Amino acid sequence: MFVSLSSFTIANDTEASVKEAFRNRPHLVDNAPGFQRLEVLSPQDNPNEIWLMTYWDDEESFKTWYKSHQYQDSHKGIPKDTKLVPGSVKIRYFSKITE
User: Fold this and answer.
1) How far apart are CA 34 and CA 98, in angstroms?
2) What is the mean pLDDT of residues 59-72?
3) Tens-digit pLDDT profile for residues 7-21
4) 92: helix, strand or coil
5) How far, rounded to the nearest angstrom, does the alpha carbon of residue 67 sit from its chain's CA centroid?
6) What is the three-state SS of 8-62?
């Protein structure tokens, strides 16, 4: 299993609308080959921070999705006025070892 963790911090007061956009996301990734699930988290000690964890069969499936036009389309629901803290965007990749 391959896991991608993306995180970012919202700089302005749009975190409620960003979270709502994730709740109402278009589910474009759901039928991507190799996709297993998406979890969207926000730490209780920093509600302006968002973490997205996607789980895949393998890294190649993730890379194919990441390069697709549907990947770009999946971000269109994020409110246009959202500003991020500079340097807060991070992407990390993991291999699952155990349950």
Assistant:
1) 19
2) 92
3) 999 999 899 999 999
4) strand
5) 15
6) EEECCCCHHHHHHHHHCCCCHHHHCCCEEEEEEECCCCCCCEEEEEEEECCHHHH
Q: Is the Cβ–Cβ distance between 25 and 98 less than 8 Å?
A: no
Q: Which domains are present in the chain?
A: 2-95 (3.30.70.100)
**The two three-digit tokens of residue 25, written as one number:** 């996301």
Given a cut of 90, whether residue 78 has pLDDT beyond it is: no
Which residues lie closer than 8 Å to 35 by C-beta, 6 or more apart?
A: 29, 54, 55, 56, 57, 61, 65
Q: Which amino acid is at 85?
A: V
Question: Is the pLDDT assigned to residue 99 strictly greater than 80?
Answer: no
